[in-house]
Amino acid sequence: MKISLIELATKLNGVLHCAANDSDVPTISGVAPIDSAKGHELTFLTSSAYLQFAATTKAGVVIVGKLAEDCSRPQIVHENPYWAFATAFQMFVGTRPESGLIDPRAYVSKSATVGENVTIYPGAYISEGCVIGNHSVIFPNSYLGRDVKIGESTIIRANVVIEDRCILGSRVFIHGNTTIGADGFGFAPGRDSIAKIPQVGIVRIEDDAEIGAGSTVDRAAMGETVIGRGAKLDSGVHIAHNVHIGEHTIVCGGACVAGSAKIGNWVILAGGTSISNHVEIGDRVVIGALAGVTKSIKIPGEYMGFPAMPAKEWRREIASIRRISSMNERLNRLEERLGKRPDL
User: Fold this and answer.
1) Catalytic residue among 241, 244, 248, 278, which?
2) How far apart are alpha carbons 168 and 225 in whole angstroms?
3) For residue range 16-63, what is the model confidence (pLDDT) as tens digits?
4) Residues 165 and 299 reside in one and the same domain
5) What is the pLDDT of residue 344?
6) Can you give the pLDDT at residue 19?
7) Could you give the percent of the chain with pLDDT greater than 90?
8) How does pLDDT run across 164-210, given as a tens digit for each residue?
9) Cα angle 250, 201, 190; round to 5
10) Final residue of a structural domain among 77, 92, 107
């Protein structure tokens, strides 16, 4: 694919600034890092750590948040340069062509409904009553339980398990070795045994969501576990039964969300965060890495620590703890000096 800078800036809704003459303005056909990009390639600059390359880059165009004064190359200024770069990147990455065929080494139940141009690879198992939308792809050795429903253009990578009756929307992407719809961890301890609470609900994953490799999303005990439209879950994430993840929420690697928690829209759960059961997190809340949320958070903002608190408060507490250590050292020195004084 080739695209002119004017067309690219228009598609991104950015403002193009060219230092070169019109005849020198390149056509873009690829993407590369700022320190190695060539004249036909696009790059971006969002971190001050890479500002040193602004003056020397040979990129055809640099996407920036504000004009880089030392850069002699064309620049596209955008209010969200990282988003603009990601959007442009997609234009130059070709999608893998699929056959649109069902391999004879896959098992597809006679009662399953398979749409047009669906690709099913060897070893996949499609159970009774499944519905697979047009243009979807099921990779090798993935399992779809009974009555699973999948929308259009959804991709299920290798070794994925989707248990009975779960529902996936359109353009959903499930990475390898992920399990959707395992039983929630529901048990009732008794005097002599632990009784299992039947898990009879489902998982519903809405359009344009993506779930990383090796993650688990448990089915609800009753009702639904929901992954909202456009939500992005990293690898190694655990979502427990009856959790509701809001639209366009990001859950980073190693995060765990306990049962019946409700996470709002446009939330970020950084790596290794833990959310207690029944907690509610409002829209546009950011939970910092390794934080533990034990109580509901309704006010937008950044929260850190355990138990999680507003980030400014957490930083003040950490600073205070460090001052206490210094104060202890000073106190010890003072006690030593006082101990050497003669009794009066």
Assistant:
1) 241
2) 12
3) 998 655 456 679 999 999 999 999 999 999 988 899 999 999 999 999
4) yes
5) 40
6) 64
7) 84
8) 999 999 999 999 999 999 999 999 999 999 999 999 999 999 999 99
9) 105
10) 92
> Which amino acid, residue 202?
I
Is residue 235 one of the residues assigned to a domain? yes
Nearest to 277 by CA among 259, 251, 296, 297: 259
175 is catalytic: no
- Shared domain for 174 and 263, answered yes or no, is yes
Domain boundary among 63, 92, 121: 92
Does residue 316 lie in a domain region?
no
Residue with tokens 């359109």: 170
Beta bridge partners of 172: none
Query: Which domain, by its residues, includes 206?
Result: 160-307
In a domain, 132, yes or no: no
Whether residue 224 lies inside any domain: the answer is yes
Tell me how many domains the chain contains: 2
Residues 6+ apart with CB under 8 A from 231: 206, 209, 210, 245, 246, 247, 248, 249, 250, 251
Please report the pLDDT score of residue 144 as a whole number: 98
**Which sign does the torsion angle of CA 311, 313, 319, 322 carry?**
negative
